[in-house]
Amino acid sequence: MDRIDKLILAKLMMNSRIPYKTLAKQIKVSREVVNYRISRLIREGVIINFTTEINYKKLGYIAASIYLNIEEEKQDEFIEFLSNSNYISWAVELSGTWNFGFSIIGKDPEDIDNKFQTLYLRFKDQITNHRFTLHKRTRYFYEKYFDTNTNIKINKIKKEESIDIDDIDKTILKELAKNSRIDLVSLSKKTPITPQAVSKRIKKLENSNYIIKYYLFVDVFKLNFYQYEIFITNDDKLTKEKLINHLEFRKDVSYVGEYIGDPFLEFGLFVDSPYDLRKKIQEIIGLFKDLKIVQIDLFQKEYVPISPPECVFE
Question: What are the tens digits of pLDDT across the range 207-216?
Fold first, then answer.
């Protein structure tokens, strides 16, 4: 990939609904060049999907992360199961402590447990161990993958409008979650309203923070990065808050996650080479000396993007 490819990816990661004409103008190339480059990035598997981060909590749902090990002969079947489940919002194959990590979305802890038990009972003879934790808060900064000379900044929390949503809004959200670049005419055909009315509803959903952002689901390996998930512990609340702030503003941290009733803090760290991992971790520990690294896993391949599954729109 060259500079133009990276600029295109950076702009799309910040807003994957940006019109190609506008994108072309911003990076000073023709629209035809943008169309060709994006088509090639899709064909080469760099861009996997155009998707939308939706605030599932405002739809009345919560999430849990599950990490587990499963015997090798069942792993392909397990991947297929996760990919086709309507309550999985993210799934990744790992190397390290765990074989797989994924998130389950449900209405409450009992609903999540029931969904997990469905999965567990199907593969219980092959699952060797697992860990189950409820989400508290997770922030994603995948635009940092391309933060070279693009002046990308972390999005600030916006003031929310308060609105009541209906089935039409849920249909719009569902379609945007599957493909953030779906056009207004196509959305109109899936609802009983005009394209202009669809546009107004999308704006309200954005302003009320049902829609958090439009982004790309990319293959990190094809960006020539190694991405690791790192779990650390720290018992001091003030230090933890400073650590979270530090991680959010590091250029090499792609997400930060907190869990309910769990002392662990999770963050994603991407590096050019595995040899850089030790140096980066030492940098962080040097600033926060009471930290303890409890787990490091390498992302092998993500199968399901971080977007709400179909169950939240039912």
Answer: 999 999 999 9
